[in-house]
């Protein structure tokens, strides 16, 4: 079973949904046109398809291996990672002045999707390195940038995020790892970190750990955390590698999925660390890295869903079983002919294309927000990030589960491969902040804090798309009408939540995840609707008929099958908080 | 992590939701009162909790082992199965005249739930034996009953269903295993069967395979199938065991879940088989077994969901993390205090209690239909079976997934145990007929065939419950109002489907699974509503306040959070068929 990167749809999203006119007009991206992006993605897609995708199943079977403090990766991963470095793919979105290719974020998201669809375990290493690069770019000193950025952007070194401790998961205020200032300005880091993705491995010559820790006199809670660079091997003044740091891998986890990615317990024993920025501001710096990683985890959701979809589609085309329900044939047909198999495939496809569309849109907004410092766009971008993470990760689990279902009994057999996506996808709504954490972020920071301003801007933009759809043909109008109903449900929920935020905060947060799923589903429907407008225009001009017809079909399916969920979520928010808060959980 | 069988709720369902007044009035069950059932379930619950539940995790790790044609089970399973036989639990629902205990089906469902919650892999063996017993009771000759029933009901022998072949999954008409009549009246059975649960194992001294095969002159398709008894070891005239039959286990599957239950490929090489009933009627006989098994698979869904829920609840009580969202405390609290964790727990609980309620109702209806030969009740019972299978199995996957989510990162670690339920549950919407097969059965056989009569009877009974709820307090009225909206959605969808069944059968079947989920969710809400009426009565009388308060709370949560999905499913049915049927799946 091969994986074929959906480059055409990825480029469609970049060109039509990522605010490309504005993004490409910025100085920082003026040297790249769509043809450059397309050429880069085509080249990267070949690497993903030919070199990475074959690692997926064997890597799952072999897993990362731990022996006496050392973690060894499957040999295929080691070989292919070396090629990844040689071809320089880690550099895709990073600044040219530090050795990067300087592509915009929407192109980067396309790259993340292709690599992670090819092999999510493999893709996790560059994903975390990207986050470390982003954090260093924004918060590192010039000397730190000079030391670490070039080898990270080259992929020769990898990066990690060290947040979690046994007592500190979602609640980072409970981090207790200690950082003691030394006379030379460095810090001695001591403590135990768990769930460290790629915390130990043999793909790169060095690993740069970014570690949250607490100085002795720091205040308690989240405002006493500082962020440190702790290289696995210390770096000499000339950039060469020095002694091994005192960071030890104690064990790796036995996991449900992404088994070829090592999840390490790391023990820091007075390890040498270097402060980033100033003391006690570590959480804010870490959020830079975390936001980048959250966005990318959403994209991983699209990725694993796409792989599950391609596998299910191939099976549905090849598996002949049962006569058609309409009785028009006495012969059994390929199961793709059966209405319910089509329903499942279209549900998968529309959730994937919807997720891809909001990822592209958000990537564009993040670029515009980052480089233009436009407060409205910044707010909208920030509003969208938890939607990308929350919606795409939750939907990935659903899509992977449908992928198993389409295979029938074969789906439950590990050798088929469908089950691996179901196992792999399950981490996505958990790591880099659970869905509830995303929802709290959305409701608390992105909605309540500005009194719903960004959320209303979001709704207003959707209303504009509705107006355009209303001018179109019957299909466009149907999509527009479904979008209107969903958007009104969103606004109704929004008003209720803002009202409750003033006098009944528990009731508001009882609806946080329903609100996240409402907003995410609406955002996907909106961007699919925008895509349908483009497709209608192309179809009128006779351009790309097969592809554009299916873009429209997907948007219509999503409007008819998925957007109605928005009203259900609204009902849950408006009428479901009392039963939720009042219930008790007595012993049996 | 232990499992505590929810005997109180199981008894509540039997007493109040399984039509107990009518069931207990039947001669066949007149010797058992509720106290007998309660005593039996209490005793069985201790066995499940103490002997079976500890096997669950270790069995998953060890798995069934295949070596040179022999399958060996984990030693704990062998030891505990022997106790199961000694205590005679296989006999629970089977007729007294064949050595059974003669309890009604609702008690049997409670037993199936407890055993499968304790260990679904373990529970599968008795589940299939139950199906074989049921098929023999209804279709076997007196001689066959005399030979096979007693040891099966004692649990000394186990039963299997042999339907699937590589080319014949959902489409049994494609079965090609051959049955050649011999001079002595027996048949020589030759062919390969796959996905045979407990097709080979070392728990019992004999295995009775019920095998679908085709005689040489049989018509093609499903009307040419005959059903055969093929004992793994032949049985002498005096009931002692004779020679090994020529049925060989070629391999067992490497599966996503239920790993301690062997799934065998069986090769029949002119094996000796005995015809059940008459030739070419095999599929009808097999449906007897399949219907029993389908109902039980629905109950397995409740079971694995309950186990996942208990694990998540225990974790949510013990895990302290983050301050309350309302800011009323500076200290971190157990995560069960956080609104979204409560939401997930209540969603799990309400789906479980809703599923349990419809299983009890359906069990009662099946008993009434079976023994009283009432056509209206028979039709309603038949209408409910695909709901129990479809709704409870699909919801089990969802509940198990929420169970992982509540554990956060720990949920992804296999040692925690939550992931096992997520893996185990995934087979439920697939085996014994996928969800689409259940939906086709519901729409084609249970709705279209009688012009919607049974479906309207179902709706009318729900309307009666609504009327009773409208007489109650505010909570009852809220439940009733949500039920009305859901029931109207059901009737609207029903009318549309019946209309389409006359002129656009593809459009009707495009909505088959949405209709199944609509009806299943409605049925659960209905039975939870009936339970709430009972609970309100008890609360007024000051009886069992803690338990009855939570029965009401669960029903209210379901009404507010789950019943609104019915309208979404209706929208999918009415407005979603064109996009589904028209879409195409071009190459990338």
TrEMBL record, chains A, B:
Residues 280-442 form the Acyl-CoA dehydrogenase/oxidase C-terminal domain. Residues 39-155 form the Acyl-CoA dehydrogenase/oxidase N-terminal domain. It catalyses: 3-(methylsulfanyl)propanoyl-CoA + oxidized [electron-transfer flavoprotein] + H(+) = 3-(methylsulfanyl)acryloyl-CoA + reduced [electron-transfer flavoprotein]. It comes from the Bacteria. Signal peptide: none annotated. Involved in the assimilation of dimethylsulphoniopropionate (DMSP), an important compound in the fixation of carbon in marine phytoplankton, by mediating the conversion of 3-(methylthio)propanoyl-CoA (MMPA-CoA) to 3-(methylthio)acryloyl-CoA (MTA-CoA). This is 3-methylmercaptopropionyl-CoA dehydrogenase. The lineage of its organism: Bacteria, Pseudomonadati, Pseudomonadota, Alphaproteobacteria, Rhodobacterales.
